[in-house]
Predict the structure.
Amino acid sequence: MQKQRSAIALLVTIMFVMLISVAIGYGLRQINRASKELKEEQSLYQNSMILSDILEILQNSRMLTKIAKSGSVDALHSFLSSRGFYSLDIGGQKLLVTITSACSRLNINALNDVTEPFYREYFSKKMLDGSYIDFLRSFMSQNKVQNEYNNVIFSSQTDVFREYIASKKHLQKINSLYIKEYHNENLKDIAFDELFCYGSDSNRSVDLNYATTAVWELIVGASPERAAALVAGEGSYKKLQDLHLSELESRKLAKFQTSFFEPYLEVTIEVIGDEGISKMSFEYAIKTKRGYDFVLEI
């Protein structure tokens, strides 16, 4: 009987210790979770303050105000050339701020019946057939192929956004689906970062003073060498004649919405600290002094 009581007492003690251990473990997990959430909240607050400060600097810039009033190609190019990159140290953190033209690429959602042949020509040179263009257009409600979505894809991918291609990550998911469906790895070799921007506003023109080599290859059918030569003239284009295009190149260019002055900036901010790197970006309209399309990556 004494041995049974001792065994029971030992069992109760072991169970009690186990319960305490579980409680302590759970408590520590909750503390760690709360600590992580607090750090994330602090990081979000700090990043929002940085964004606010950068936006205020842009809004109070005398040079940008002058550019907005004058509409000067030279003034905008001077600003982007001399003030395109900043490195700042704030409170033990390094800030890398990059400012570029927000109109150097094509909005992928501007793909339509008129421009589609040029997209097909460009991607054909990259060893991709027309199925890729059809695939892209099935993810744009305004460009439905035969007014129908690709039902085979969407029946298995019900969570995919179908109205327009909203972001780089959205396109990456679409491209992954295409590779899985068509088994064409050549898609991975396309310089999409140099070619496309995103969003529902597909009416903005490409600023030909900042168009990338990939964009020139697509919109006028230029070779990489010819496109590089056009890029080399950055900031000097004020009229069509300044481009020295061939008759065929001019006809192709006329199919796209382009201009020689687009007062929109793309601002990218990298915050480097002990906790890692966070990246923020937004677009800034010089004339209205408004920021929009804010993106935060932690």
The first strand starts at residue 85 and ends at 90. Residues 108-204 form one domain. The CA atoms of residues 244 and 250 lie 9 Å apart. The longest helix spans residues 2-59.
